[in-house]
Specification:
The protein is an alpha+beta fold. It is built from six helices and 21 strands. It has four domains: about 40 residues; about 80 residues, conserved putative lor/sdh protein from methanococcus maripaludis s2 fold; about 100 residues, Efflux pump adaptor protein, beta barrel domain (Elongation Factor Tu (Ef-tu), domain 3, Beta Barrel), CATH 2.40.30.170; about 140 residues, OB fold (Dihydrolipoamide Acetyltransferase, E2P), CATH 2.40.50. Strand 17 and strand 18 form a beta hairpin.
Length: about 425
């Protein structure tokens, strides 16, 4: 009702009442008493309707074959890292090898100055000759005195002394031979040879540098690269999960095929396996050491690189997967939002397993056919009714809203305004 029209009617009745009698004045007073109620009723707006339930995206729980894959982060290492050190004190004369290349067993790597050790070897051989000559003299004395002592032509003591000198001579020869061997060994140490096949690193010394004085000087380091090892630290939970996987499939952890994912996200071309699990869990870290071995024919993998080792334990039939975003974690426990038949939300604790891509395996407290909230979690409250939609329905609704917003208004339509 128009308020201006009501005011006009009231003023008209008032003019008529001034010229009329008491009846007209009585009607005027009654009308004036009802005017505030009429005006209030005319100006009062209708109560707004309640807001619609919030829309959330849900998925219906189904079962599938879940791949059982254990993933561990580790660091690569060589099965044999050899530090090549100088074992005698000498000057470096030559280094006939190329850094960063493969060397073979027995290949000459460093030539040290060996002249002082040749002199020592010659002196040791001379001392050995003297000892052997003395021994021969003592043996000749025994041969000469023995028949005379038997005829009592010489005292028995002379023979005993001669026999004692033979033993002294034999000991002297034995010591002289040991000194010759030691001198010869020091001489051979002047030629530093490769102890195994492998890739040699950078030189740690220069030509003319004195090495081996006091302590064995590090000359270079070489490593065998094919195969190569990867050391990983598995948590107690991870170790128990892997044990559970092996029991399900009837395999040993040493029989499970392993793949290696490198730092650039690409997978190593060769398949490996686990060949070592440590005897105990480290008390400080709560982890256990696991080692995998992988062929490395191209020597692409080098010690010190980081990689992820994946162990393929097969598949688990009848597994339940939900998007990881649908799982909430609070104080060490995991929860998901369930939409009941009455479209009301309920928070439910669940037990989670391994990650499978961007999904999470649910091992307990979730059944096929139930509806889990996977989108719009911030709108959900316990016991509050929601408008559940599948991902396809949510996409259609969003597309329809976008089209409606982009559609132009018809010409001549009145714009909303204030009365």
């Amino acid at each position: 009702m128009n308020r201006n029209r009501i005011r006009s009617a009231v003023f008209t009745l008032a003019d008529q009442a001034r010229g009329g009698g008491g009846v007209a004045q009585t009607l005027l007073l009654a009308l004036l008493a009802t005017v505030p109620a009429v005006l209030t009723s005319a100006c009062k707006k209708a109560a707004p309707p309640p807001p619609p339930p919030p829309s959330v995206v849900i998925m219906e729980v189904t079962t599938t074959n879940v791949p059982l894959v254990g993933e561990l982060i580790g660091q690569l290492d060589s099965p044999q890292n050899v530090e090549i050190r100088a074992r005698v004190e000498a000057f470096v004369r030559a280094m006939p090898f190329l850094e960063g290349t493969n060397v073979a067993t027995g290949q000459l790597l460093f030539q040290l100055d060996d002249e002082p050790y040749q002199v020592k070897l010659a002196a040791a051989k001379g001392a050995l000759g003297e000892a052997e000559a003395a021994l021969k003299k003592y043996q000749a004395d025994v041969a000469r005195l023995k028949p005379l002592a038997e005829k009592r032509a010489v005292p028995q003591q002379d023979l005993d002394n001669a026999l004692a000198w033979v033993e002294v001579g034999q000991a002297a020869v034995f010591s002289a031979k040991a000194r010759v061997k030691a001198a010869d060994l020091d001489l051979t140490y002047c030629k530093v040879l490769a102890p195994t096949n492998g890739l040699i690193g950078a030189k740690q010394v220069s030509i003319g540098e004195l090495v081996g004085k006091g302590t064995p000087t590090l000359l270079a380091t070489m490593s065998t690269l094919d195969p190569i090892w990867v050391y990983c630290n598995a948590s107690e939970v991870g170790l128990l999960n892997m044990d559970e996987f092996t029991r399900r499939t009837g395999k040993s952890i040493y029989d499970v095929p392993a793949t290696l994912v490198l730092a650039n996200g690409k997978q190593h071309s060769e398949t490996g396996k686990v060949d070592f699990v440590d005897r105990a869990v480290a008390a400080k870290t709560g982890t256990i050491r696991i080692r995998g071995v992988f062929p490395n024919p191209g020597q692409l993998l080098r010690p010190g690189m980081f990689a992820r080792m994946k162990l393929d334990f097969g598949v688990q039939p009848g597994g339940i997967l939900v998007p990881e975003l649908a799982v909430n974690e609070l104080q060490g426990k995991s929860f998901v939002w369930i939409i009941g038949p009455d479209n009301k939300a309920e928070q439910r604790p669940v037990t989670v397993g391994q990650r499978v891509g961007d999904q999470r395996l649910i091992t307990q407290n979730l059944k096929p056919g139930e509806r889990v909230v996977v989108g719009g979690l911030q709108k959900v409250r316990s016991g509050v009714e929601v408008n559940p939609m599948t991902a396809a329905q949510a996409a259609q609704a969003a597309e329809a809203a976008a089209q409606a917003a982009a559609k132009p208004a018809p010409e001549g339509s009145a714009k909303p305004g204030k009365e």
